[in-house]
Amino acid sequence: MKRMISRRTLALTVLLCAVLSMVGAALMPDADAVVTSTTNVLVASAWGLEIASWAGIPILAWFVSVRVWRIRQVSAQVGRSPSLLAGQYIGVLTLLALACEAPYDYIRSGQWWDARSQNPLWAVVIALVALLVWDAVEAYGPNAKRATRLAVVLTALVWAVVFRVVASVTLLTLLLLLWPVDYTMRWKKFALGRQAAFVLASFGAGGTPLIGTWLVGHTKSHTNTRAARTSQWFLWWAYPLLLVVGILIRMAVYTWVIPRFA
Predict the structure, then answer these.
(1) For the chain, what percentages of helix, strand and coil (3-state, to nearest 5) are there?
(2) pLDDT value at 223 more than 90
(3) Would you give the DSSP letter of residue 56?
């Protein structure tokens, strides 16, 4: 019998991947640093940790999609607009992304504001905004709806690239949000299931996300709602705390490790 994985395990896996990414960023020497054997080791270690952290991308996308599915269920039960509830969710994540931006930039570059990259939560916000527009055009005619939705997805991806966030997070989140579980895309004799598309998208985002895809595929489907909600919000509250740890690691590297071994 296939052994199932709990959502708490997935949440801890995402946090572990976040730690790997932050430590890798903290170890990366500045561009103008003197090249030594120590800086070469730090660069190799930083890239290795960053690549390993990509395994958490599909899991993060899956958590967001589960939350949106739950929002739609609740809105149907209480008679409230799903767009309103989704908008509140976007608002919370936007505030969290704003709060995390300065520490994220400092870990990445040593500056409290650096426009060269933005933290991954912005990719989730972009995907959710695209979802709202996607749902808003439901009443359009078939051709107009198809063209508008294609433009929405392309705009979201361009937005992610221009805004310098992790575009793969946006891509995989949109894929899980917009592709129903039981839907198969068909074109003449060619058929592509959602699971296969998810794997292909993970591979396109980098090889290690396939690990996260495998974990998502072995998730327990009977987890109770309270446990699911707890693991969901645990991710968002733990992320800023991990950023604080990342700041301390970077400070230690630049005040002790690099000067000592330079």
Answers:
(1) 75, 5, 20
(2) no
(3) G
| Residue 168 Ramachandran class (φ > 0 left, ψ -120 to 50 alpha, else beta) | alpha
Long-range contacts, stretch 244-250, CB < 8 angstroms, 24+ apart: 244/103, 245/19, 245/22, 246/22, 246/23, 246/25, 246/26, 246/103, 246/107, 247/103, 247/106, 247/107, 249/22, 249/23, 249/26, 249/27, 249/107, 250/25, 250/26, 250/106, 250/107, 250/110
8-17 residue pLDDT tens: 788 888 888 8
Rg (CA), the chain: 20
Q: Residue 238: its pLDDT value, please?
A: 83
**What's the confidence (pLDDT) of residue 98?**
92
Distance between CA atoms of residues 201 and 57, nearest Å? 11
- Of 153, 174, 161, 167, the residue nearest 204 (C-alpha): 167
Structure tokens belonging to residue 50: 């960053």
- Give the count of alpha carbons within 13 A of 215, CB side only: 24
pLDDT digits (tens, 9 = 90+) for 165-207: 878 788 878 877 776 555 555 555 555 565 666 666 666 666 6
The count of residues in the chain is 262
Strand positions, DSSP E, 79-189:
184-187
